[in-house]
Design a protein that fits this description.
Blueprint (H helix, E strand, L loop, with lengths): L1 E5 L3 H13 L3 E5 L2 H10 L4 E5 L4 H13 L5 E5 L6 H7 L6
Parallel strand pairs: 1-2, 1-3, 3-4
Length: about 100
């Protein structure tokens, strides 16, 4: 399974990439929307893990772009309360938590 990890925190991206790779997944990681868009177009992920804590607007923008380009993979949103159900569904999330 191909997974894209989108977070601005290098340590978080690294930890998730290492753990998921050890479980046999192909993992790309991006620290900004430009990098994430590259991976979405060139290597469409099955799952996109988005950290909204520090990158809320960037994460929501990425979600909109991905859905706008026909992305149909699953999205996992990590947040400590920065996002809301309404905000996520308007940005393209198909299911709530």
């Amino acid at each position: 399974m191909r997974i894209l990890v989108f977070a601005d925190k290098a340590l978080l991206r690294h930890h998730l990439k290492v753990q998921l790779t050890q479980q046999g997944h192909i993992v790309d990681d991006a620290q900004n929307v430009k990098e994430a868009n590259y991976y979405i177009v060139e290597y469409p992920p099955d799952i996109d893990i988005i950290d909204l804590d520090e990158t809320r607007e960037a994460g929501l923008a990425l979600l909109r772009v991905w859905r706008g380009q026909g992305g149909s993979g699953r999205i996992v949103v990590m947040s400590d309360g920065a996002g809301s159900y309404t905000t996520l569904t308007r940005a393209g999330s198909r299911r709530g938590w």
